[in-house]
Amino acid sequence: MAQQLARIILWVSLSFFSLAAFAAEQQEQKPEKTSNYQPLIERYILDELKSVRQDQQSLRADMEEKVAHAKLDASDRIIRYTSDTLNNMFIIITTAASILVLMGWRSMRDVRSKLNEVVETKINELTSEYEDRLHELEGKLRKRSQEIIDAQEDISKSNEIHSIWMRAGLETNMHQKIKLFDEILAINPEDIEALIYKADAAYELGDYEWAFSLANRAIDQDQDYGLAYWQRACANAANGATQEAINDIKIAIEKAPKLADELDREPAFEDLHELEEFEALKPQT
Questions:
Q1: CA–CA separation, 197 and 181 (whole Å)
Q2: Where are the domains of the chain?
Q3: How far apart are CA 179 and CA 171, in angstroms?
Q4: Burial (0-12, 13-18, 19+ Cβ within 10 Å), 124
Q5: Is 174:204 a contact under the CB 8 Å cutoff?
Q6: Where is coiled-coil annotated (predicted)?
Q7: Can you tell me whether residue 98 is helix, strand or coil?
Q8: How many CB atoms are located within 10 Å of the residue 11 CB?
Q9: Each residue of 225-244: pLDDT tens digit?
Q10: CB atoms inside a 10 Å sphere around CB 169
Q11: What angle do CA 7, 12, 13 make, to 5 degrees?
């Protein structure tokens, strides 16, 4: 089962990277023309999602079958335990009766009374023991079933989020992109990357205050995420808050040093290049 899940996730990941590479190549070759292959790509994505759903349904059926077999095996063990217990009880009764006769007990009434007491005590002990085992087994089965259900829900959410990210990668309209990022956040409100990409889309639309607010939300969720400070620096620079933008850039580079290589390529920082403090942040060559 774990191998099947790994193969499915690996196959979907390879499909995603292949589509991303294909989309990037088409954009580099024909940046000013709309691709005629987009409907085919979307159809391919839908077919892939259908295949993933079918694999998930097959996996769920396998899980349910395995749980049913586990419950059946547990019932068989309980029946065997009960049968063995009864056989042992009869052996104990026979042995006890023989011992009592050999010890010279005079009255069969005394023998029956003693045997009943011994048998009742033994039955109570065995019953209590097997009840405890049965409760423990039922608890393990319920826990395992819940784990399987939770895992299936996580897989379903991951597949859905992955499909939305693929659609967002193909989308060129910023308003539609924001709607797709909202769908991701509705499934997983703690998806910090969706917040950052939504902030970037808001920035591209010229709504710098909204981009600033979204970047702050991302920082509140993860104060060590350098890209969140970078996005807030872009919003601050666009709003004319130069010093705040530089401070955010410093924090972003401290959290993610590779961002320093993007200083010259970031359009939002064009007005900051004249500042010595900004130039000092660039990597020394």
A1: 8
A2: 2-170, 189-279
A3: 11
A4: exposed
A5: yes
A6: 127-154
A7: helix
A8: 14
A9: 888 899 898 988 888 888 88
A10: 14
A11: 95
